[in-house]
Amino acid sequence: MLRTVPSVSLARSPGFLRYGAAGAVSAVYAAKAPATPDADEARRAASKELSRPIYHQGPGLWQRIRDWILDHLDTGSMVPGVPSWVSTAIVVTVVAIVVALLILLVTRVSSARRVATPSLSVLTDDRDAATLTRAADEAAERSDFATAVVERFRAIIRSLDERGIIDEYPGMTALEAAALAHRALGTHPVVTPLHEAAHLFDAVLYGHVVSTRSQDRQMRELAAQVVTITLPAGRPLAGATAAGPGAPV
Questions:
Q1: Are 127 and 222 in a shared domain?
Q2: Rounded Cα gap, residues 54 and 106, in angstroms
Q3: Any bridge partners for residue 238, and if so which?
Q4: Average of pLDDT values for 164-193?
Q5: In whole angstroms, what is the distance from residue 187 CA to residue 146 CA?
Q6: What is the domain count for the chain?
Q7: How far apart are CA 135 and CA 131, in angstroms?
Q8: How many helices (H) and strands (E) does the chain have?
């Protein structure tokens, strides 16, 4: 007689639950998993990742200075009698001020060597002596003594030309202008200071010296003397080229 074997649902068997369920989950993940990227997609993904700001952030200048100080100096004990963090803050502040002052000093010296004027030669524009004098006065008021010295000397030469003492010509240098004045005025007391002013003009214009208030005062005194000059009777107008090196007036 055949025995009837009780049927057991496969879905409830332990083996199916262990292996069949795992296989089903694996099949689901396999269906959702992306395909392996090709070379172009991999490069694009890498470029996108490396373009993130986190890979390009670096310490700034002040942060580097601070880190260098902290690495090489015991800033916490440099100011006695105060907490270490206060000592560190004081040292970092002092160093920052010193660096800022050095930068300011270099900037001022560089700017002092550059004359803020629209042209190297007064002959390239039509400004008269009065206009040049005003430009020199305005430059002196803002402590730009380089421009003040250069513009006042040009005003002096323009004044000599306007009153017929010398005759300006294109390309005339400061020393040539002084030589023309010497020819026209002979041994007049203003001739020697005018030559000295011409040398100062060249030195300031080319940045060989940094102008000062005393040099501005020297040019003002010379300008006051030149105003009173008149061409001596019987002397021709000095306009021939005078040899001598120098910058164009």
A1: yes
A2: 35
A3: 166
A4: 89
A5: 29
A6: 2
A7: 6
A8: 10, 0
Phi and psi dihedrals of 111, rounded to 5?
-70, -30
Q: How confident is the model at residue 144 (pLDDT cuts 50, 70, 90)?
A: very high
pLDDT at position 2: 47
Q: Are 210 and 146 in contact (CB under 8 A)?
A: yes
Residues 98 and 76 in one domain: yes
> Whole domain around residue 71: which residue ranges?
61-112
Which amino acid appears at position 180 of this protein? L
Last residue of a domain, one of 85, 112, 139: 112
Q: Which of 191, 135, 130 is nearest to 162 (CA)?
A: 130
Q: Do 87 and 164 belong together in one domain?
A: no
| Residue at 9 is within a domain | no
Provide the H-helix boundaries in 113-209: 129-141, 145-162, 174-185, 191-205
CB 150 within 8 A of CB 205: yes
Residues 132 and 197 in one domain: yes
Top-confidence residue, 40 or 108: 40
Kindly report the backbone phi and psi dihedral angles of residue 237, in degrees, each rounded to the nearest multiple of 5, phi listed first: -65, 130
Q: Is residue 23 part of a domain?
A: no
What is the DSSP code (8-state) at residue 12? G
Helix (H, G, I), strand (E, B), or coil: what is residue 72?
helix
